Amino acid sequence: MRTLPKVELHIHLEGTLEPELIFELAARNGIQLPYDLDELRRRYEFTDLQSFLDLYYANLSVVLTEQDFADLTRAYLRRARDAGVRHVELFLDPQAHTSRGVPLATCINGVSEVLKNSESEFGISSSLIATFLRDRPAEEALAVLAELIEMDAPLVGVGLDSAEVGHPPADFVDVFDLARATGLQCVAHAGEEGPPEYVWQALELLGVSRVDHGIRSLEDPKLVDYLVSNGIPLTVCPLSNVRLRVVDTIADHPLPEMLERGLCVTINSDDPAYFGGYVDDNYTAVQDAFNLSADQLATLARNAVSASFLPADRRAPLIAEIEEWRAARPM
Ligand code: ADE
Ligand code: ZN
User: Fold this and answer.
1) Residue 41 needs a FRET pair 20 to 30 A away by CA distance; which of 229, 260, 287, 311 works?
2) Does residue 46 form part of some domain?
3) Per the domain annotation, does 215 fall within a domain?
């Protein structure tokens, strides 16, 4: 049976760095890591978002050259192809690299040289979203955005991520104003660990057209009404929510309630090398936990097409592929 054609809208390139590749890049760059592979693997137990972010940033110490960024991107696309991904809007955290001395051009060039051939090499169309780290100063984000614009980086949009609580979207109004004025799409992580108020701020102050995570929106009925009536998509990451203890188990995930309330929910992997699965594994996890029908799976996949930044003429063939998948399955 063919796999469901998927669009992935919430995936951090840095979160696809698999432990084996960490050691491969370390060896190539002459870096001696103070632990072996098994010891590293034992660190992948998280109590919250920050405990994950500490490891996520630390592991990046081995990613240094254009070739490293290109290899990381290619490894993701290879795995995404197996997962049935047909289009990806990939997050990249430039400040996770510039803050440790890697030039912006090194990461942008390494990633974009691979993305520009993703369709012909992997059958996956792609675009890039630069995400700013909300636990670093907004002035730094603004300077990085100005540099990205100056170098004409091939971006479809900007986002906001990293430690959420205590770092409200309101701090980044200038950054998002500049992005919008430049014609870039705007998204932001909000309502992952942070309160519904941060989702409101992302919508009203940053002008985002899509919310990353957003699952705490359910705590505010007015916000849910707003998201539903304005068709604002949420990029939900079920396995991430379990591993970062946003929910206790996959069975406790509010996905069914979100669908029932009419939210435009999409399924994504966030940081698959850290959370036990790529986007296909996330679909499988919710399918198993909630006994989802082929119709419901197709709806989730269609939601991601409509939530994407693809032009209309690129959406229609993807919708047709999903319909074809659905038609091949028993009613
Ligand atoms: N950066 C990478 N993954 C993230 C997540 N789940 N939340 C916030 N920032 C992140
Ligand atoms: Zn994320």
Assistant:
1) 287
2) yes
3) yes
Cα of 192 to ligand 2 centre, how many Å?
9
- 54 domain residue, yes or no: yes
On whether residue 331 sits in a domain, the answer given is: no
Q: Tell me, yes or no, if the pTM score tops 0.90.
A: yes
Summarised one tens digit per residue, pLDDT across range 17-26 is 999 999 999 9
The pLDDT of residue 330: 79
Question: Number of structural domains, the chain?
Answer: 1
Q: Is 8 in the pocket of ligand 1 (CB under 6 A)?
A: no
317-322 — which CB contacts under 8 Å span 24+ positions?
Answer: 318/5, 318/7, 318/86, 318/87, 321/5, 321/86, 322/4, 322/5, 322/298
- Is the beta carbon of 11 within 6 A of some atom in ligand 1? no
How big is the CA angle at 239 (ends 34 and 21), to the nearest 5 degrees?
35
Single out the residue of 238, 241, 227, 239 nearest to residue 199, CA to CA: 227
What residue numbers bound the domain in which 101 lies?
Answer: 6-326
Looking at residue 191, which CATH number applies to its domain? 3.20.20.140
Tell me how far the alpha carbon of residue 15 lies from the centroid of ligand 2, in angstroms.
9
**Each residue's pLDDT tens digit, 217-250:** 999 999 999 999 999 999 999 999 999 999 999 9
Question: Token pair for residue 317?
Answer: 């063939």
Q: Is 162 in the pocket of ligand 1 (CB under 6 A)?
A: yes
Q: Which of 192, 239, 242, 268 to mutate to test the pocket of ligand 1 (most atoms within 8 A of CB)?
A: 192
- Kindly report the average pLDDT of the chain as a whole number: 97
**Catalytic residue at 119?**
no
